[in-house]
Amino acid sequence: RALRKDNTGYDLKQLFIGAEGTLGLVTGAVLKLVPRPEDRAVAFAGFTEPANAVRLLNRAQSASGGLVTSFELIPRIGIELDEKNIPGCRDPLTAPFPWYALVELAAGRGAGLRGVLEALLAEALDDGVIADAAIVENETQAEDFWRLRHSLSASMKPEGGCIKHDVSVPVEKVPAFLAAADAAVTAAFPGARIVAFGHLGDGNIHYDVCRPLDAETEAFLARWEEMQRIVHDIVAGFDGSISAEHGLGRMKRDEITRYKSQVELDMMRAVKAAFDPQGLMNPGKVL
User: Fold this and answer.
1) SS3 per residue for 174-187
2) Positive/negative CA dihedral, 130, 133, 135, 140
3) Closest by alpha carbon to 210, among 100, 78, 106?
4) pLDDT band at 124 (very low <50, low <70, confident <90, very high)
5) What pTM was estimated for this model as a whole?
6) In whole angstroms, what is the distance from residue 64 CA to residue 137 CA?
């Protein structure tokens, strides 16, 4: 704990979260366990553009009183790669759509979340926010829906090389970011197959670009830095971060200096020096 000038304490744990072990190490932990949610409702919705996903997310948060536990954005190409490369994967909807959302609500017993989700989707369908949707009837169906999302990274592996980005932008800016990034990437890499998916609820997008079908894998991957510079510059232009849930590590350690000011870098180095003056903690990462 640290003390403010008025001698009241505040927790320094936020400095450790996401620090990749560079500020210290955990030698013990106390866990507070809560009952597993007993009421769960999961749906898969199709729509025409990412802006409608943001609209659906906002409506889901409002209708459920903040009980949205997952809201995953998935592009059509992701479903196609799942069906092609992952056994047992299939589109839950009867017609293809450019974009999909996997929505999950969860709470304690008796929350009536299925009714909430049904009403939400019916209203969104009437208003044209979504074009179709399916709600799971049992746990097996829920696992099938989630397999489509969890298999995306694996479904890209047989495609002969992908350049991946783990980025985030403010949620309301996700549609504009996707439009700008898609235009820039396809201009520089004609035929590139963009698989942009992720946790829309916090603006975290895995912006992965698979090689064009007519390109050699080695030649495509040789342009990794060029691709990253294009995507990361656009992320910065939307007030985002080039490192979302997976951290900087070594790969982005030098890249971050392009997007952080000298003042910010000096502050981070000062914090590091205060906690770990000998550089013992996870050396070579972040700074």
Assistant:
1) HHHHHHHHHHHHHH
2) negative
3) 78
4) very high
5) 0.87
6) 19
